[in-house]
Amino acid sequence: MSLLFQLLSILGFSFGNSLWHKPVQKLPVTLIIASKSLVTTLLFLIAIIITYKSSLLNDYGITKSTTELKLIDILYGVGICAISYWGLYFFNQSLKHTKSGITITISGAGTIIGFLTAIFIYNEKLSFINILSSIIGTFGLWCLEKLNPAFFKLKFTKGMLFGLLSMLFWRIGGLFPLVINKIGVLQFSLVLEFTVFTISAAMFLLSKKKREVHFDNVKPFIIIILLIALSNFCGILGNHMALKFTSFVNYTILGFLAPIVTFTISILYYKEKYSLIQYIGFTIMIFGGIGLNYINTIFK
Q: Where does the pLDDT of residue 231 fall: very low under 50, low under 70, confident under 90, or very high at 90 and above?
């Protein structure tokens, strides 16, 4: 089940991320983030209202009644969401300075941080298969990047710096399960998106770029921003459900689904063509990375 939730998350985020590039070149980053977060905030609020009286969802911790919520838990959630926000901010800044990400560097470093979080915060244990599948998955990513030697040279560009900063701030998400278990999946998702909206809106209103933006500038991108919001809603919901129902070690390894889904979308939707070595990398990641880890889980 956690695999399905993570797949929903990756599908949502991958499709949404593929739409960011054009608006971020024309509009202030904070305006785009605030706009999409306002929509997702409203969507999660509607979801909470609809599911409020569902005892089944309450029993599984997907939603919580108001009597179960504590102000200190909500404030703690706001705090870690405010830190995590800068991951999204720096991700969009990196799009301004690089065409492709630093997929391998970010994923590799992110996996290490994810494993450390699992060990020291959630007292989980790493198996040899966990480590092996991560190494194989990283090699598969390198193949997707057409064996790019820049990975080993660690040549830092402005885009790479912003990308690494986004990964570091996003990894505060390792603390999300601590709050999700206390206030529920839907309520935490609402807290996250409302926090992101508040920070982005404040930054935009205080910036000089506010004076340069008119409705005519925004109008061509309204549909794109709405699509980003809808896909992010699915991504956030799937991500938080996966955090709720899987170990953090497996959750970290499932992160390798992201480039797999992006690769598939680019073939089916954008009709992009890839080399043989990239298809080999794609296969390695599916069967050698994620597949190896889950076969090991099944036969435990």
A: very high
Q: Mean of the pLDDT values across residues 278-288?
A: 78
154: left (phi over 0), alpha (psi -120 to 50) or beta: left
Q: Mapped to the 3 state alphabet, what secondary structure does 24-67 carry?
A: HHHCCHHHHHHHHHHHHHHHHHHHHHHHCCCHHHHHCCCCCCHH
Backbone torsion region of residue 270, taken as left when φ is above 0, otherwise alpha when ψ lies between -120 and 50, otherwise beta: alpha
Tokens 């954008």 -> residue: 270
**What residues does each domain of the chain span?**
2-298
Q: Which residues of 265-293 are buried (b: 16+ CB within 10 A; e: fewer)?
A: beeeeeeeeeeeebeebbebbbebbbbbb
Name the pTM for this structure.
Answer: 0.79
Distance CA 133, CA 114 (A): 14
How far is it, in rounded angstroms, from Cα 219 to Cα 123?
49
